[in-house]
Amino acid sequence: MDLQKLNNPNNHLNFSGGPGALPESVLNATQAAIMNVPEVGLSLLGISHRSNWLRNVLDETEENLRNLFSISKNYHVLFLQGGSSLQFSMIPMNFLRGNRKVAEYIVSGYWSIKSVPEARKEGQVRVVWDGKDSGYNRLPKAEELVLSSDAAYLHYVSNETVEGLQFSYLPSISNVPLICDMSSDFLSQPVPVERYALIYAHAQKNLGPAGVTVVLLRDDLVDTIPSGLHSMLDYRTHIVGQSIYNTPPVFALYVIMLVTRWLRKDISGLAKMAEINQAKAATLYKVLDESGGFYRGHAVREWRSLMNVAFRLADRDLEHLFLKTAVENGFYGLDGHRSIGGLRASLYNAVTQSGVEALAGFMRDFQQRYG
């Protein structure tokens, strides 16, 4: 592959861990809407959050999500703000505060680590597994988890964005509400929503730009929320307010509608999206596996993420040169997270197979030059 700079007009070589790449059709539609939303005659940035138009946007987005995940009527679909960081607090406030039960948490990496201190401010927490001793390079096997049958809930992160780890099974126990942060693999594959009490995912990965957090919340869990919570931190407030209790991020919501529409109409659903994502990941992991140790993946092979490929070079002095050369050739966002360093390629939904193949070719050429 010639290492001359690649033309990248459609951001298809954006491998950032977030904000992630968006589909070309979504970018084009958003660009046009910033100037003028045809059915309104105004810029997207100037439309009231109390308009019927936004209500229709929210309704279509909810319908798209219900269709994509086959979400039943006993789940609320909420569009909130504050990202996962706020959910780390809201979840224990609503489902642990004043509860004599213990909440159980799986600590598998950077983001699940951050969820535990917030929960401990509200009640008793038990960490049922912590991957610290392994350097967070693997996830627990099902038999390693000793779970309580009377826990307030079990919380885990399905895909650790920083370390490139992804669960391949549901770490659940019957009768215990299962709560999951799916921020970095939401919409990447089918999910058995009916097995969960609450799923949440913040945008800027597969959903769209930052500013929106989608929450799928089962009715029976709502019934357990204590009284006396601050209005903005009570899920019931947002259920009654239909996700516009306060001013919502209209721009981000519109883009999420376009993304979910793209998944339904252009991709033909999450099963097909999963096939595409598996092929992309296989292409890149093959480069690591065939490099003879020049590239070294962070995650144990069994737990490799389809969304985030975290790796290092055997000669770490070459990593800066790798990043510099990558940008010169049109590849963006390959820096590893500040907490572990190294390199990372995020393969979110809108990253194309051709883009991944281009990156794979670049990595092979870089190894040939410097290996």
Supply database-style keywords.
alpha/beta, globular, 10 helices, seven-stranded mixed β-sheet, 371 residues
Count of strand segments: 12
- The portion of residues forming beta strands comes to 5-15%
Unreliable stretches: 1-10
**How confident is the prediction overall: mean pLDDT?**
94
- The percent range for helix content is 25-40%
Q: What is Rg?
A: 21 Å
Based on CA inertia axes, which overall geometry fits?
globular
Distance between the first and last residues' Cα? 16 Å
Main sheet overview: 7 strands, mixed
Instruction: List the helices and strands in order.
Output: HHEHEHEEEEEEEHHHHEEHEH
From the helix content, strand content and strand pairing, which structural class follows? alpha/beta
Q: How large is the count of helical segments?
A: 10
Major sheet: order of its strands? 1-9-8-7-4-2-3
Summarize, please:
The chain has 371 residues and is of the alpha/beta class.
Description:
- The structure is a single chain.
- With 371 residues, this protein is an alpha/beta fold.
- The protein is built from ten helices and twelve strands.
- The chain has a seven-stranded mixed β-sheet, with helices on both faces. Strands 10-11-12 form a three-stranded antiparallel β-sheet, with helices on one face. The protein has a two-stranded antiparallel ribbon with strand order 5-6.
- Helix 4 (110-120) links the parallel strand 2 (103-107) and strand 3 (125-130).
- Helix 1 (24-35) packs antiparallel against helix 7 (250-265), helix 2 (52-69) runs parallel beside helix 7 (250-265) and helix 3 (83-95) runs parallel beside helix 4.
- It is globular.
